[in-house]
Write a structure and sequence with these properties.
The protein is of the alpha/beta class. The protein contains 8 helices and 5 strands. The structure holds adenosine monophosphate.
Amino acid sequence: MNIVIFGPPGAGKGTQSNLIVKNFNLYQLSTGELLRKEIKNDTKLGKEISSIINNGSLVSNKVVGDLIEQYLSNKSYKNRLIFDGYPRNLIQAKNLDYLLKKYDQNINIVLKLSVSLDTIKKRISERKDLEKRVDDSREIAIKRFETYENNIKPVIDFYENSNLLKVVNGEASISEISSEISRLIESNKG
Ligand code: AMP
């Protein structure tokens, strides 16, 4: 089973992906985390992308596409991936489709966490003290929310058309959201 989870920054994608990993024995592929690791390790790629990430814009489709192909082509992750933060625009959604076919896999369910901007602002200001992410400042968080909103509509339509999309109320508590997600995944398994 492969799963896509998306939602605005601060929607709880990371937290919920972790719980899905535990409950369903999958592997979490967070493009944001992979990119932050590159910056932390001061790699060539890290140097190229740090200013893009720090100002809340999107890294190029080619960079993230190459990252996810490394996982899709790896047999130990075959049909065991949860895509957290990818795809973020229509080009990426189509690229994911292409790569899935190339490696003989498919997406079973797409989860969209819906959260208001007010909740995002509150959660990000709480997370800022815990995780110390440079892109969690109030200003940049709002920019990231806008970047998300500006790009995500065609992705939603794309997955709605393929009947894979399930919308989850991301305003609820962590455990309520997690139960709802587990229920959706279980019912999808048939
Ligand atoms: P996240 O941890 O998912 O909030 O991602 C943090 C940042 O990493 C984003 O604001 C983007 O700059 C970058 N990023 C993560 N995933 C992608 C993606 N799929 N496409 C482009 N940029 C991404």
